[in-house]
């Protein structure tokens, strides 16, 4: 005779009145809000598909801002600021959200084209940009975007590989049958080298007497279609990026798979937030900057404080820009790493972000002993936490991985150096820096609501 089982306790475990418990956006949002999140992300996917590079992102932002009659200032086609004047004078300080519009990719070298006679194909040599896992970039469909400045100074724009009728490109890889010695026995990071990330661009030879017939065929095609010569590549910015389209992911369509969500998820939500502002308390600025993925070095980056100083002087010539910045508050709109299935050991789960739990608040970034980090004050964290709770916006607190496991940085430190209060706030992203990143729709919408609430106050 079987033993009788223990009687189940009919009472549920009581939750502590004092313990912190992270809630999901699915619990916090009403059905109407969830519907709004799904609808919001339709235009977000369109933005991702039409803004594959930093130049294209600024073009799209400019187009949208002007159609909404917003004041926008552009710096060298790779940086922009949208400004909404507040009720209080500029001297009271600003409210700034800043996102970056560059993403990891493969840049063409200045003299990229060559013919490989052993395989009878022509290829473009590349130099990868930003932090990538090189093995993720082989044998995926790539499109070619960017500009070429010809000898006569005329600009040629490229966006080839996005339309179904366009050709695509890819980096060749070795079949598994022959890969053991040259790939399989190596460390993952060594199996594919940076110099091997060359993009196949053609194979048809010309019939004239030149020695490199396939290369000549590509040059003839480029001259016929675009009027460019090989020397013109020296004054070009051409990027090979994933040709994937932004798509709903999962049976329930709750996720989005797309290239470039770090950090265009924040760029788009910041854009929408400032477009929807009406009479904020403080003058609000949405900044969109370049080259964050390579340390914010260059004249269109977060380190160029002269751009912000110029904006402040244009808004009010009488104020001292340094005094204004000391009174200003900033949200560094950047993503955080979502806990990844099968690799949870690199996350400290109490202090890690997960998909579906809302916008991520990161008090500090950096690596190791908070090296190269902005570390927001307790007072400013409290202010942002109170705002999010008051507005019933789903949020979570997180840092990037376990201590001494890795880490990363954002543009936050550059603005804190100018005396401003700064904190990182953005959606979690799974498979970050890969050719196809994953986000959750309720997190994207939570980010939009957070940026809008911050800019309004």
If you had to describe this structure to a student in words, what would you say it looks like?
By secondary structure, this protein is of the alpha+beta class. It has two domains: 25-103 and 259-456, Zn peptidases (Aminopeptidase, 3-Layer(aba) Sandwich); 105-242, Aminopeptidase i, Domain 2, CATH 2.30.250. The chain is 28% helix and 23% strand. It has twelve helices and 21 strands. The protein has an eight-stranded mixed beta sheet with strand order 1-2-12-3-13-19-15-17. A six-stranded antiparallel beta sheet has the order 7-6-9-4-5-8. The longest helix is centred in the N-terminal third of the chain and has 20 residues, at 31-50. 42% of the residues are buried. The model has no long low-confidence stretch (mean pLDDT 94).
């Amino acid at each position: 005779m079987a033993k009788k089982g223990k009687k189940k306790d009919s009472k549920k475990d009581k939750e502590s009145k004092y313990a912190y418990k992270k809630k999901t956006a699915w619990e916090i949002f009403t059905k109407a809000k969830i519907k709004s999140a799904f609808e919001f992300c339709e235009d977000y996917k369109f933005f991702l598909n039409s803004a594959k590079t930093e130049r294209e992102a600024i073009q799209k932002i400019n187009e949208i801002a002007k159609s909404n009659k917003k004041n926008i200032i552009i710096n060298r086609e790779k940086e922009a600021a949208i400004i909404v004047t507040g009720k209080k004078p500029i001297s009271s300080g600003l409210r700034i959200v800043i996102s970056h519009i560059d993403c990891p990719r493969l840049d063409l070298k200045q003299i990229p084209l060559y013919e490989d006679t052993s395989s009878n194909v022509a290829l473009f040599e590349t130099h990868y940009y930003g932090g990538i896992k090189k093995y993720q970039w082989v044998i995926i469909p790539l499109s070619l975007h960017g500009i070429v400045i010809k000898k006569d100074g005329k600009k040629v724009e490229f966006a080839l590989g996005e339309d179904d009728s366009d050709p695509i490109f890819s980096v060749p890889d070795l079949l598994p049958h022959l890969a053991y010695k040259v790939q399989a026995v190596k460390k993952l990071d060594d199996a594919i080298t940076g110099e091997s990330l060359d993009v196949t661009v053609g194979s048809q030879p010309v019939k004239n007497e030149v020695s490199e017939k396939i290369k000549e065929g590509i040059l003839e095609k480029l001259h016929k279609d675009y009027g460019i010569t090989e020397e013109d590549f020296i004054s070009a910015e051409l990027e090979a990026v994933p040709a994937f389209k932004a798509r709903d992911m999962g049976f329930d369509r709750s996720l989005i798979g797309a290239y470039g969500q770090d950090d265009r998820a924040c760029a788009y939500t910041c854009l929408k937030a400032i477009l929807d502002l009406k009479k904020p308390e403080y003058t609000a600025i949405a900044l969109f900057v370049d080259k964050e993925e390579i340390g914010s070095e260059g004249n269109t980056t977060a380190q160029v404080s002269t751009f912000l100083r110029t904006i402040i002087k244009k808004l009010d010539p009488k104020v001292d820009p340094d005094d204004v910045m000391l009174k200003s508050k900033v949200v560094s709109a950047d993503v955080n790493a979502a806990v990844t299935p099968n690799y949870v050991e690199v996350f400290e789960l109490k202090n890690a972000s997960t998909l579906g739990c809302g916008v991520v608040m990161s008090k500090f970034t950096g690596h190791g002993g908070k090296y190269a980090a902005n570390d927001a004050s307790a007072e400013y964290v409290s202010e942002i936490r109170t705002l999010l709770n008051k507005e019933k916006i789903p949020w979570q607190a997180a840092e990037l991985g376990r201590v001494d496991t890795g880490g990363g940085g954002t543009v936050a430190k550059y603005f804190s150096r100018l005396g401003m209060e700064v904190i990182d706030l953005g959606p979690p992203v799974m498979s970050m820096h890969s050719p196809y990143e994953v986000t959750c729709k309720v997190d994207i919408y939570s980010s939009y609501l957070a940026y809008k609430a911050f800019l309004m106050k």
